[in-house]
Amino acid sequence: MGGRQELQHRTRTSRLLSFNPRMRRTRLQKRPPRFPFSVRARLAPTLSARDPSPTEMNVEPWAGPQDQSSAEHASAPERPDELCLDSFWSEVERIRQGSGDSEPEAGRRDSRQSEDGEQEEQWLQEAGLSPLISEDSADVESAVLLSTLTRTQAAAVQRRLDSYTSSLRKRNKPPPRDVRDIFTQTTLPESQDYEQLAPQSSMETARKTGSTDQQGRTLKEEIFITDVAYCEQAVILLKQAELPQNHGRRKRDDGTLPRVVSPQCRLGVTRVEDLSQQDMKKVRQLALIDMTALCDLLELDVKRQKTCKRKIPDSALFGVPLAMLLENDQKIKASTPVPLILQALLSFLEKKGIDSEGILRVPGSQTRIKVLQQKLENTFYSGGFSWDEVSPNDAAALLKKFIRELPSPLLTAEHLSAFSAVRDIPELKQKLHVLNLLVLLLPETNRNTLKVLLEFLSKVVSRERRNRMNLWAVSTIMAPNLFLHKALPSRLTDGVERGQAERAADIMRLLIRYQDLLWTIPNFLMSQVRKLNETSSRRYQFYDKRIKNLLRKIHADSRDKPDKNASEPCRTVKVQVGGVLSSSMEVRLNVNSRASDLLARVQQELCASDNGKGPLRRNGSVALPDCAVYEVGGNIGEHCLDPETHLLDLNNTNPGGEWVIRLKPPNSRGL
Questions:
Q1: Per-residue pLDDT for 545 more than 60?
Q2: Inter-residue contact 390 to 372 (CB < 8 Å)
Q3: Residue 372 has pLDDT above 80, yes or no
Q4: Pair (489, 607) in one structural domain
Q5: Distance of alpha carbon 440 from its chain centroid, rounded?
Q6: What's the pLDDT tens digit per position in 32-59?
Q7: Residue 70 and residue 122: Cα distance in Å, rounded?
Q8: Average pLDDT of 455-475?
Q9: Residue 200 belongs to a domain
C-alpha cells in the first residue's frame, strides 16, 4: 500500500507541474550583442533599488471608484476560481457552436504560414526599410532610419535581411545589399549607443519601492522604465540572469498584479492620440523593429498568419469590417472614433447592466439575441430601435458577438499570434513591454475600439462588490472572444488543461489592468522619432562629405558657446481658440515653467475678455474651452503636450518648433 500511495503522489505532482505555465523558462540561443558598460551601470541600479523617488508617476489601472483598492487587494483571488475556468471553456464552446462548420475547408487551408521570404519582405516594408530590398530606390531613406536604431534593433534588421537573402538564394535571385554597405557609402555618422539617444531623465533616480494600503499591508510595485529601448533592457536582464550569483534569486509568481510606477519624464507623458498621423507612422515603424528584436531575444514565435478573403455579409452592423463600419458611421457623426453600435451597447451596459450580478458571464437567450440582432440591423440607424426591451445579459451577449464576428480579429491577424505569445514570457515588465509595442502597432480604428472596450471592462471590475465580477472573471470570459477567430488557427484550444485557461486569461487581465500604461508612447520611441525627423530634414548633407563635416563643426562650435539668456529664454506662443481669442504672447521660461501654467494664463485672459460673462455651466461656473498646448514643427510634426511638460526642457529638445494653444480635436476628447 505504501508503494501505491507514493505512486499516486508522484502522479499528482507531475500533473501539477505540467499544468503550471510558469515552470517554463526561455533560454537564449545566441549571445546578445555587446552593450555599453555605461548604460548597464545606469540601468542596473534602477532595476534593483528600493527607495521611492519624488518624481515618480503612479500608473493606476481602473482607478476611480472609492471601493476599488479594497476590492483589488482584499477580495480579488490570486488565481482564477473553478467558476471562472468553467466559464472560460463554456464561452469557447458557445463560440464554436455559433460559428459552426460554415467555414469552407479551402478557407481553413488559406490560413497558412507565408512562403519563404514573404514574411521578411512584408516586415521590411512595414518597418520602412523596403529600399533595402529594391534595386532602383535611394539608399539614403533606409540609412536615415537605420541611423536612429540601437545596436540590438539594428541586429534584428540584419537578421531579417539575412533571412530574406537566404530565401532569394533558394529561388536563384540576386541578394539585396548589406546594411553595412549602405552605412559605408552614404558616409552616415556612426550608430549611436542608446545612452546618447535617450534623454537625460529620471533614470538615475527611479527606484523600486513597496507602498502600503489603508490597512498597513505592503503592496508590490514595479518600476517601468521607458527611456531605454525595451530590447536593450532585455539584453541587460538576460546578462544579469547568466551571472552565477543571480541564479536562485527569481521569486515565485503568486499571481497578484503589482502597481506599476513609471518615472516622471520632464517632457511629460505622450499618448497615442497626442501625435500627428505622420509621426505615428514613424512610431509604428520603430515599434515594429523594437518588438521584433525583443521577441528574438525572448525566443517568441510571432510568425504571422495569412487569412482567407471572406465575403462581406449583407449586413449593416455585425460581420462588417471595422474600418468600413467606422467610415459609414463618420458620415452620420464625423467626430466618432469608434462604431456607433459599439458606443450604444457600451452606454446601455454602463447605465443598466454594470451592477447586474454575473454580467458578461451569464449567457443571454440565443433566441432573443437573434431577434435583437435582426432588429438592430433593420432599425438602428433609423432610430426605431427601443433599448427598453433589452436585458443586460442579452446586451452583453450582443457585445461579445459584435467583437468575435468581425471579419478579422480585433487584435488583427498580423499580430494576434504575438499577443498570444505574451503568455510565454516569464517577467511581468517584459510582458508589458511587448503589449505596449503591440498596442502601438494596431491600426487606429482597432486601437480605439479596443481602448473603449477595455475602459468598459475596467468599470465592470471596479463594481465587483455589486456584480460579483472580479478581474479574473472578466478576463476569462472576454479572452476567447478576442483571441479565438474562425478565420485563424489558435493555440488556445490545444488542450483543456487548467493552465491553458489561466495563461489565456492572463493576457486579457494585463490589458485591462495596465491599459493606461499600454496606451502611451515610450520616451525612447519619442527620442527616435525626433532624431529621425531631424536627420530627414538634413538629408542633403549625406551627399557631400565636406558640407557634412563643416556643418558638424559649426554645430559643435555653437553648442560650446554660452548663451547669454540661457537661464531664462523667452518664447512666443501663438493662441488660436476659434473666434474667442487669436493672438500671441511672450513667455519667459524658467526651470519650473510647465504647459499647465500657459493654459492657466490663457484661461485668465479668456475670462477677462468676456468680463466674467462667458458661457455658464449648470453649477454656475464659467465653461472654458478645452484647450491644449501643441508643439508644431522642428523635429516633430505635431505633438499635444502633457500639462506637466517642463517648457524649458522642451525648448532645449526642439528649439525650432512653434508652440500653439488651441482647442483639442473632438476625437481626442472622446477617447
A1: no
A2: yes
A3: yes
A4: no
A5: 5
A6: 444 343 434 444 444 444 344 434 444 4
A7: 48
A8: 94
A9: no
Whether residue 424 lies inside any domain: the answer is yes
Residue of 146 and 668 predicted with greater confidence = 146
Closest Cα partner for 659 from 638, 623, 631, 628? 631
Grid look-up 493555440 returns 491
The three state secondary structure string of 24-54 is CCCCCCCCCCCCCHHHHHHHHHHHHCCCCCC
Q: Model-level pTM greater than 0.85?
A: no
Q: Tell me the C-alpha distance between 505 and 478, whole Å.
A: 8
For residues 480 and 577, state if they share a domain. Answer: no
pLDDT of residue 549: 59
Residue 349 belongs to some domain of the structure: yes
Count of domains observed in the chain: 2
CATH number for the domain spanning 657: value is 3.10.20.90
What one-letter code names the amino acid at 586?
A: E
Does 266 map to a domain?
A: no
Mean pLDDT of the chain, nearest integer: 75
Please name every residue paired with 113 in a beta bridge, in sequence order, or none if there are none. 305
For residue 281, the Cα-to-chain-centroid distance in whole angstroms is 14
How many CA atoms are closer than 13 Å to the CA of 560, on its beta-carbon side? 6
The C-alpha cell 463594481 sits at 463
Clarify whether residues 392 and 326 are in a common domain: yes
Q: Which residues contact 618 (CB under 8 A, 6 or more apart)?
A: none
Residue 73 DSSP label: I
Residues 510 and 651 in one domain: no
Rounded to whole angstroms, what are the CA distances from 195 to 43, 228, 524?
10, 8, 10
Set of cell numbers at residue 459:
468599470
My answer on whether 432 and 569 are in the same domain is no
What one-character-per-residue DSSP string does 144-176 give?
Answer: HHHTT--HHHHHHHHHHHHHHHHHHHHTT-PPP
* 490 and 396 assigned to the same domain: yes
Give the best-scoring range by mean pLDDT among 122-136, 246-260, 498-512, 624-638. 624-638
Which residue, among 395, 386, 380, has the nearest Cα to 317 in the 3D structure? 380
Q: What is the CATH number of the domain that holds 479?
A: 1.10.555.10
Residue 606 lies in domain: 565-670
Please tell me whether residues 323 and 466 are part of one structural domain.
yes
More confident residue, 463 or 118: 463
Report residue 153 as a C-alpha cell: 534593433
